[in-house]
Amino acid sequence: MTTLPYADVDCNLRALAGRAEGFGRFAVGGLHGDLYVVTSLADDGPGSLREGGRRREPLWIVFAVSGTIHLNSYLSVSSHKTIDGRGQRIKITGKGIRLKECEHIIICNLEFEGGRGHDVDGIQIKPKSRHIWIDRCSLRDYDDGLIDITRQSTDITVSRCYFGQHDKTMLIGADPSHVDDRCIRVTIHHCFFDGTRQRHPRLRFGKVHLYNNYTRNWGIYAVCASVEAQVFSQCNIYEAGGKKKTFEYYPEKAADKEEVRAGLVRSENDLFLNGAQASLLTGAGGECVFHPSEHYPTWTVEPPSDTLKQIIKICTGWQSLSSPSDHGVPK
Protein backbone atom coordinates (compact mmCIF):
# COMPACT_ATOMS: atom_id res chain seq x y z
CA MET A 1 0.00 0.00 0.00
CA THR A 2 1.54 3.28 -1.13
CA THR A 3 1.08 6.20 1.27
CA LEU A 4 1.62 9.67 -0.15
CA PRO A 5 1.60 12.95 1.79
CA TYR A 6 -0.90 15.77 1.49
CA ALA A 7 -3.97 13.68 0.65
CA ASP A 8 -6.36 16.37 1.93
CA VAL A 9 -4.68 19.70 1.13
CA ASP A 10 -6.96 20.27 -1.87
CA CYS A 11 -10.17 19.98 0.13
CA ASN A 12 -10.12 23.71 0.84
CA LEU A 13 -8.20 26.56 -0.72
CA ARG A 14 -6.24 27.47 2.40
CA ALA A 15 -5.68 23.90 3.62
CA LEU A 16 -2.12 24.13 2.24
CA ALA A 17 -1.10 26.55 4.98
CA GLY A 18 1.23 25.05 7.56
CA ARG A 19 0.98 21.59 6.00
CA ALA A 20 4.40 21.12 4.39
CA GLU A 21 6.49 18.26 5.64
CA GLY A 22 10.05 18.90 6.68
CA PHE A 23 11.93 22.11 7.23
CA GLY A 24 9.29 24.27 5.53
CA ARG A 25 6.48 23.01 7.73
CA PHE A 26 5.73 26.38 9.34
CA ALA A 27 5.07 28.15 6.01
CA VAL A 28 1.53 29.58 6.09
CA GLY A 29 1.76 31.83 3.04
CA GLY A 30 -1.14 34.26 2.84
CA LEU A 31 -3.37 32.27 5.19
CA HIS A 32 -4.62 35.30 7.09
CA GLY A 33 -4.91 37.61 4.10
CA ASP A 34 -7.57 38.49 1.57
CA LEU A 35 -8.03 36.71 -1.74
CA TYR A 36 -6.26 38.40 -4.65
CA VAL A 37 -7.47 37.26 -8.08
CA VAL A 38 -5.10 37.52 -11.05
CA THR A 39 -7.22 38.60 -14.01
CA SER A 40 -4.45 39.69 -16.40
CA LEU A 41 -1.53 37.81 -17.96
CA ALA A 42 0.35 41.09 -18.42
CA ASP A 43 3.78 41.52 -16.87
CA ASP A 44 2.49 44.35 -14.66
CA GLY A 45 -0.53 46.53 -14.03
CA PRO A 46 -3.99 46.07 -12.52
CA GLY A 47 -4.93 42.45 -11.91
CA SER A 48 -1.42 41.15 -12.68
CA LEU A 49 0.58 38.66 -10.66
CA ARG A 50 3.33 41.24 -10.16
CA GLU A 51 0.84 43.69 -8.65
CA GLY A 52 -0.29 41.08 -6.12
CA GLY A 53 3.21 39.86 -5.33
CA ARG A 54 4.57 43.26 -4.36
CA ARG A 55 1.73 44.29 -2.07
CA ARG A 56 2.85 44.42 1.54
CA GLU A 57 -0.20 42.82 3.16
CA PRO A 58 -0.82 39.04 3.39
CA LEU A 59 -2.61 37.72 0.29
CA TRP A 60 -3.79 34.37 -1.05
CA ILE A 61 -3.23 34.82 -4.80
CA VAL A 62 -5.33 32.75 -7.25
CA PHE A 63 -5.90 32.96 -11.00
CA ALA A 64 -9.06 33.60 -13.00
CA VAL A 65 -7.20 33.06 -16.29
CA SER A 66 -4.88 30.47 -17.81
CA GLY A 67 -1.93 31.18 -20.08
CA THR A 68 1.64 32.44 -20.17
CA ILE A 69 3.00 35.32 -18.11
CA HIS A 70 6.14 36.64 -19.80
CA LEU A 71 8.23 38.44 -17.21
CA ASN A 72 10.57 41.19 -18.38
CA SER A 73 12.31 41.25 -14.99
CA TYR A 74 12.32 39.18 -11.82
CA LEU A 75 8.96 39.12 -10.08
CA SER A 76 9.61 39.94 -6.43
CA VAL A 77 7.24 38.57 -3.82
CA SER A 78 6.81 40.08 -0.36
CA SER A 79 6.15 38.16 2.86
CA HIS A 80 2.97 36.24 3.65
CA LYS A 81 1.93 35.36 0.12
CA THR A 82 0.51 32.20 -1.43
CA ILE A 83 0.72 31.97 -5.23
CA ASP A 84 -1.82 29.24 -5.91
CA GLY A 85 -2.14 27.97 -9.47
CA ARG A 86 -4.71 25.29 -8.77
CA GLY A 87 -7.68 25.48 -11.11
CA GLN A 88 -5.74 27.11 -13.98
CA ARG A 89 -2.62 26.49 -16.05
CA ILE A 90 -0.12 29.32 -15.61
CA LYS A 91 3.32 29.29 -17.22
CA ILE A 92 6.02 31.72 -16.07
CA THR A 93 8.61 32.52 -18.73
CA GLY A 94 11.23 35.16 -19.58
CA LYS A 95 12.47 35.65 -16.03
CA GLY A 96 11.57 34.02 -12.70
CA ILE A 97 10.20 34.62 -9.22
CA ARG A 98 12.51 36.16 -6.61
CA LEU A 99 12.01 35.66 -2.88
CA LYS A 100 14.20 38.29 -1.22
CA GLU A 101 14.26 38.90 2.54
CA CYS A 102 10.76 37.51 2.93
CA GLU A 103 9.03 34.81 4.92
CA HIS A 104 5.95 32.60 4.80
CA ILE A 105 5.66 31.98 1.08
CA ILE A 106 3.80 29.12 -0.63
CA ILE A 107 4.12 28.58 -4.40
CA CYS A 108 1.87 25.86 -5.79
CA ASN A 109 0.96 24.34 -9.17
CA LEU A 110 2.79 26.62 -11.61
CA GLU A 111 4.98 25.97 -14.66
CA PHE A 112 8.33 27.68 -15.18
CA GLU A 113 9.94 27.42 -18.61
CA GLY A 114 12.30 29.39 -20.82
CA GLY A 115 13.98 31.85 -18.46
CA ARG A 116 16.65 33.87 -20.25
CA GLY A 117 19.52 36.06 -19.08
CA HIS A 118 22.52 36.07 -16.75
CA ASP A 119 21.76 34.67 -13.29
CA VAL A 120 18.12 33.99 -14.21
CA ASP A 121 16.60 31.22 -12.06
CA GLY A 122 13.07 29.85 -12.11
CA ILE A 123 12.71 30.48 -8.38
CA GLN A 124 15.53 32.42 -6.71
CA ILE A 125 15.50 32.43 -2.92
CA LYS A 126 18.00 34.92 -1.46
CA PRO A 127 18.94 36.50 0.86
CA LYS A 128 17.60 35.73 4.34
CA SER A 129 14.26 34.26 3.32
CA ARG A 130 12.58 31.53 5.35
CA HIS A 131 9.47 29.44 5.91
CA ILE A 132 8.88 28.62 2.23
CA TRP A 133 7.04 25.75 0.55
CA ILE A 134 7.25 25.05 -3.21
CA ASP A 135 4.78 22.33 -4.20
CA ARG A 136 3.71 20.73 -7.49
CA CYS A 137 5.59 23.02 -9.84
CA SER A 138 7.09 22.08 -13.21
CA LEU A 139 10.44 23.70 -13.95
CA ARG A 140 12.59 23.42 -17.07
CA ASP A 141 15.00 25.25 -19.37
CA TYR A 142 16.31 28.31 -17.53
CA ASP A 143 19.68 29.92 -18.24
CA ASP A 144 20.89 29.47 -14.65
CA GLY A 145 19.17 27.36 -12.00
CA LEU A 146 15.66 26.05 -11.69
CA ILE A 147 15.55 26.63 -7.93
CA ASP A 148 18.44 28.36 -6.13
CA ILE A 149 18.50 28.70 -2.34
CA THR A 150 21.37 30.82 -1.03
CA ARG A 151 22.52 33.66 1.26
CA GLN A 152 21.12 32.47 4.62
CA SER A 153 17.73 31.40 3.28
CA THR A 154 16.40 28.49 5.30
CA ASP A 155 13.50 26.34 6.51
CA ILE A 156 12.31 25.44 3.03
CA THR A 157 10.44 22.44 1.58
CA VAL A 158 10.32 21.51 -2.11
CA SER A 159 7.78 18.76 -2.79
CA ARG A 160 6.12 17.00 -5.72
CA CYS A 161 7.98 19.11 -8.29
CA TYR A 162 9.09 18.08 -11.79
CA PHE A 163 12.51 19.10 -13.12
CA GLY A 164 13.47 18.54 -16.76
CA GLN A 165 15.48 19.81 -19.75
CA HIS A 166 18.14 21.53 -17.67
CA ASP A 167 21.80 21.55 -16.62
CA LYS A 168 22.41 23.11 -13.18
CA THR A 169 19.14 22.15 -11.57
CA MET A 170 19.22 23.19 -7.90
CA LEU A 171 21.98 25.02 -6.02
CA ILE A 172 21.76 25.26 -2.24
CA GLY A 173 24.46 27.43 -0.66
CA ALA A 174 26.08 30.23 -2.67
CA ASP A 175 29.86 29.69 -2.62
CA PRO A 176 32.63 28.96 -0.08
CA SER A 177 32.86 32.63 0.95
CA HIS A 178 29.28 32.68 2.27
CA VAL A 179 29.92 30.87 5.54
CA ASP A 180 26.65 32.16 7.02
CA ASP A 181 24.96 29.62 4.74
CA ARG A 182 25.65 27.11 7.52
CA CYS A 183 22.14 27.97 8.70
CA ILE A 184 20.47 26.57 5.55
CA ARG A 185 17.99 23.72 6.05
CA VAL A 186 15.98 22.28 3.15
CA THR A 187 13.70 19.27 2.66
CA ILE A 188 13.18 17.87 -0.86
CA HIS A 189 10.71 15.03 -1.24
CA HIS A 190 8.55 13.23 -3.80
CA CYS A 191 10.20 15.14 -6.67
CA PHE A 192 11.09 13.87 -10.15
CA PHE A 193 14.47 14.87 -11.60
CA ASP A 194 14.01 13.68 -15.17
CA GLY A 195 17.24 13.61 -17.16
CA THR A 196 18.55 16.87 -15.73
CA ARG A 197 22.34 17.02 -15.85
CA GLN A 198 23.50 17.80 -12.31
CA ARG A 199 22.69 19.45 -8.93
CA HIS A 200 19.83 17.37 -7.56
CA PRO A 201 20.87 19.29 -5.50
CA ARG A 202 24.41 20.62 -5.08
CA LEU A 203 24.78 21.71 -1.48
CA ARG A 204 27.25 23.84 0.43
CA PHE A 205 27.36 24.23 4.22
CA GLY A 206 23.74 23.46 5.02
CA LYS A 207 21.57 20.45 5.79
CA VAL A 208 19.31 18.76 3.22
CA HIS A 209 16.87 15.90 3.76
CA LEU A 210 16.03 14.04 0.54
CA TYR A 211 13.34 11.36 0.63
CA ASN A 212 11.18 9.46 -1.85
CA ASN A 213 12.52 11.38 -4.86
CA TYR A 214 13.09 9.77 -8.26
CA THR A 215 16.24 10.89 -10.06
CA ARG A 216 17.07 9.31 -13.42
CA ASN A 217 19.52 9.62 -16.29
CA TRP A 218 21.67 12.42 -14.88
CA GLY A 219 24.53 13.76 -16.97
CA ILE A 220 27.32 14.18 -14.38
CA TYR A 221 26.11 13.14 -10.91
CA ALA A 222 22.84 13.02 -8.98
CA VAL A 223 23.70 14.75 -5.69
CA CYS A 224 26.79 16.77 -4.75
CA ALA A 225 27.96 17.55 -1.23
CA SER A 226 30.45 20.43 -1.22
CA VAL A 227 32.12 22.26 1.65
CA GLU A 228 30.72 21.12 5.05
CA ALA A 229 27.38 20.03 3.54
CA GLN A 230 25.28 17.35 5.22
CA VAL A 231 22.92 15.34 2.99
CA PHE A 232 20.55 12.74 4.45
CA SER A 233 19.32 10.68 1.48
CA GLN A 234 16.46 8.39 2.49
CA CYS A 235 14.43 5.94 0.39
CA ASN A 236 15.14 7.69 -2.91
CA ILE A 237 15.28 6.03 -6.32
CA TYR A 238 18.45 6.71 -8.31
CA GLU A 239 18.31 5.26 -11.83
CA ALA A 240 21.50 5.83 -13.81
CA GLY A 241 21.82 6.47 -17.51
CA GLY A 242 25.25 6.79 -19.08
CA LYS A 243 26.82 8.24 -15.93
CA LYS A 244 26.80 5.92 -12.93
CA LYS A 245 28.14 7.98 -10.02
CA THR A 246 25.25 8.98 -7.76
CA PHE A 247 26.94 11.02 -5.03
CA GLU A 248 29.74 13.46 -5.78
CA TYR A 249 32.00 15.35 -3.37
CA TYR A 250 33.66 18.64 -4.34
CA PRO A 251 36.24 19.76 -1.76
CA GLU A 252 36.34 23.50 -1.11
CA LYS A 253 37.75 25.80 1.56
CA ALA A 254 35.35 27.81 3.66
CA ALA A 255 36.43 31.43 3.93
CA ASP A 256 36.90 31.16 7.71
CA LYS A 257 38.76 27.82 7.69
CA GLU A 258 42.21 26.67 6.67
CA GLU A 259 41.47 23.13 5.55
CA VAL A 260 39.81 22.09 2.30
CA ARG A 261 36.75 19.93 2.89
CA ALA A 262 33.96 18.31 0.95
CA GLY A 263 30.56 17.49 2.37
CA LEU A 264 29.04 14.24 3.62
CA VAL A 265 26.19 12.03 2.46
CA ARG A 266 24.28 9.53 4.55
CA SER A 267 22.28 7.05 2.48
CA GLU A 268 19.49 5.10 4.15
CA ASN A 269 17.48 2.54 2.16
CA ASP A 270 18.06 4.25 -1.18
CA LEU A 271 17.44 2.19 -4.34
CA PHE A 272 20.19 2.24 -6.97
CA LEU A 273 19.11 1.05 -10.44
CA ASN A 274 20.75 0.44 -13.82
CA GLY A 275 24.25 0.29 -12.38
CA ALA A 276 24.00 3.46 -10.31
CA GLN A 277 26.99 3.59 -7.97
CA ALA A 278 26.37 4.95 -4.50
CA SER A 279 29.95 6.21 -4.27
CA LEU A 280 29.67 6.72 -0.52
CA LEU A 281 32.73 7.82 1.41
CA THR A 282 34.38 5.26 3.66
CA GLY A 283 35.52 6.05 7.18
CA ALA A 284 34.17 9.20 8.78
CA GLY A 285 31.07 9.95 6.79
CA GLY A 286 27.42 9.13 7.17
CA GLU A 287 27.52 8.86 10.93
CA CYS A 288 28.42 12.57 11.10
CA VAL A 289 25.35 13.64 9.10
CA PHE A 290 22.31 15.00 10.91
CA HIS A 291 19.14 12.94 11.28
CA PRO A 292 15.82 14.63 10.38
CA SER A 293 14.26 13.52 13.67
CA GLU A 294 16.54 16.03 15.37
CA HIS A 295 14.49 18.78 13.66
CA TYR A 296 10.94 17.53 12.99
CA PRO A 297 8.93 14.67 14.45
CA THR A 298 7.26 13.05 11.43
CA TRP A 299 7.37 12.80 7.66
CA THR A 300 5.73 10.48 5.13
CA VAL A 301 8.33 8.08 3.77
CA GLU A 302 8.07 4.58 2.35
CA PRO A 303 10.49 2.07 0.88
CA PRO A 304 11.45 2.85 -2.73
CA SER A 305 9.70 0.62 -5.25
CA ASP A 306 8.56 0.46 -8.85
CA THR A 307 5.10 1.50 -7.66
CA LEU A 308 6.50 4.61 -6.02
CA LYS A 309 8.48 5.38 -9.17
CA GLN A 310 5.37 5.23 -11.35
CA ILE A 311 3.38 7.40 -8.95
CA ILE A 312 6.10 10.05 -8.84
CA LYS A 313 6.15 10.16 -12.65
CA ILE A 314 2.42 10.94 -12.66
CA CYS A 315 1.95 13.08 -9.55
CA THR A 316 4.81 15.58 -9.82
CA GLY A 317 4.74 18.99 -11.43
CA TRP A 318 1.76 21.01 -12.56
CA GLN A 319 -1.52 19.15 -12.14
CA SER A 320 -4.92 19.64 -13.76
CA LEU A 321 -6.90 20.38 -10.62
CA SER A 322 -10.15 22.05 -9.80
CA SER A 323 -9.79 25.22 -7.80
CA PRO A 324 -10.74 24.39 -4.18
CA SER A 325 -13.45 26.41 -2.50
CA ASP A 326 -12.37 29.15 -0.12
CA HIS A 327 -13.93 29.14 3.32
CA GLY A 328 -12.48 32.56 4.01
CA VAL A 329 -9.86 34.00 6.31
CA PRO A 330 -9.59 31.92 9.51
CA LYS A 331 -10.42 33.75 12.72
From TrEMBL:
Q: Which SMART domains match?
A: Amb_all
Listed GO MF terms:
metal ion binding; pectate lyase activity
Q: What is its EC number?
A: 4.2.2.2
Reactions accelerated catalytically: Eliminative cleavage of (1->4)-alpha-D-galacturonan to give oligosaccharides with 4-deoxy-alpha-D-galact-4-enuronosyl groups at their non-reducing ends
Source taxon at top rank: Eukaryota
UniProt-listed InterPro entries: AmbAllergen, Pec_lyase, Pectin_lyas_fold, Pectin_lyase_fold/virulence, PEL
The enzyme's main class, written as a single word, is lyase
User: Key word Signal present in the record?
Assistant: yes
- Note on cofactor: Binds 1 Ca(2+) ion. Required for its activity.
Print the keywords alphabetically.
Calcium, Lyase, Metal-binding, Signal
Q: Which residue numbers delimit the Pectate lyase domain?
A: 31-244
Which prosthetic group or cofactor does it need? Ca(2+)
- Pathway(s) per entry: Glycan metabolism; pectin degradation; 2-dehydro-3-deoxy-D-gluconate from pectin: step 2/5
- Single biological process term from Gene Ontology: pectin catabolic process
Q: Which family does it belong to?
A: Belongs to the polysaccharide lyase 1 family.
**PANTHER family this protein is in?**
PECTATE LYASE, PECTATE LYASE 18-RELATED
- Could you tell me what this protein is called? Pectate lyase
Organism, as annotated: Raphanus sativus
